[in-house]
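User: Predict the structure for this protein chain, please.
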Amino acid sequence: MSKFYIENFTDFEQALSILDTNQISYNIDEERLICVDETDVCQTLEAFDKEDIYYLEAC
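Assistant: Here is the predicted structure, written as structure tokens:
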């Protein structure tokens, strides 16, 4: 399953808050990049502006 990083947000804590508010599961890697599962992408796109999502094959 593909993973997606969330990029270009201005506030790391705000991004986590948006995900928590929308009950979207995520992982944070060692570079503090936030990653969501492919199954949560549509919901994440609704929570964030579409230009904030940057596609990557794997986290």
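The chain has two helices and four strands.
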